[in-house]
From TrEMBL:
<dbReference type="InterPro" id="IPR036397">
    <property type="entry name" value="RNaseH_sf"/>
</dbReference>
<protein>
    <submittedName>
        <fullName>DNA polymerase-3 subunit epsilon</fullName>
    </submittedName>
</protein>
<dbReference type="Pfam" id="PF00929">
    <property type="entry name" value="RNase_T"/>
</dbReference>
<keyword id="KW-0378">Hydrolase</keyword>
<keyword id="KW-0540">Nuclease</keyword>
<dbReference type="InterPro" id="IPR012337">
    <property type="entry name" value="RNaseH-like_sf"/>
</dbReference>
<dbReference type="GO" id="GO:0008408">
    <property type="term" value="F:3'-5' exonuclease activity"/>
</dbReference>
<keyword id="KW-0269">Exonuclease</keyword>
<dbReference type="GO" id="GO:0003676">
    <property type="term" value="F:nucleic acid binding"/>
</dbReference>
<feature type="domain" description="Exonuclease">
    <location>
        <begin position="26"/>
        <end position="195"/>
    </location>
</feature>
<dbReference type="InterPro" id="IPR013520">
    <property type="entry name" value="Ribonucl_H"/>
</dbReference>
Length: 195
């Protein structure tokens, strides 16, 4: 099979996954903004959108660690903007309850490995046992990475990595809910592809 044939197959699979998600009334899109990229950084903003585009959550989170300067330059969030916001340990059990009541069974994330790691890290920093239970439940839901699917859809092959080049999120504005909306547009674009 030629590389072009392989790419067409992968593009079709990405389109099929996007169509399946958009047809799922219990699918959501999630995005986070964080204090940085490191192993102790935490979530300071989270957005969750239904696959129809309805906002479930657009929340800032109070963090006890400093926000990295480079991260703050990207998303524009400063420590003083988080003073009256809930802490992660208070917020996560509440949002898990909401997602559970809605019957959410699928989460789509643009760069899922990063956001899932940040959910785990933020929860690890919380002493609240309910937060840890909610973390296991959320991370246990079916999830997939729209960035990896979109890379296959675009088809820009990299010899050195033996994989498709990851694409920047088109239309993302570095707010959690704005990036959820941009991810929804990526899904809609991929879903239009017909085999």
């Amino acid at each position: 099979m030629s590389r072009r044939d392989t790419w067409k197959r992968h593009r079709g699979q990405a389109a099929q996954r996007a169509r399946k998600t958009l047809a799922n009334p219990n699918a959501v899109i999630l995005d986070t903004e964080t204090t940085g990229l490191g192993s102790t950084d935490q979530i300071l903003e989270i957005g969750i959108l239904t696959a129809r585009g309805d906002v479930i959550c657009d929340e800032r989170i109070k963090v006890d660690i400093p926000i990295g300067k480079s991260a703050s330059r990207i998303h524009g969030i400063r420590q003083d903007m988080l003073t009256d916001c809930p802490r992660w340990g208070e917020f996560l059990p509440w949002i898990w309850g909401d997602l559970s009541l809605r019957g959410v069974n699928e989460i789509v994330i643009y760069n899922a490995p990063f956001d899932r790691r940040m959910i785990a890290q933020s929860s690890a920093a919380s002493p609240d046992p309910e937060c840890h239970i909610s973390t296991k439940a959320i991370l246990g839901l079916d999830h997939w990475c729209a960035m990896h699917a979109y890379a296959a859809y675009v088809g820009d092959w990299q010899e050195w990595s033996g994989d498709y080049r990851w694409q920047r999120l088109p239309g993302g504005d570095h707010s959690a809910i704005g990036d959820c909306r941009a991810t929804l547009k990526v899904l809609q674009t991929m879903a239009q592809e017909r085999e």
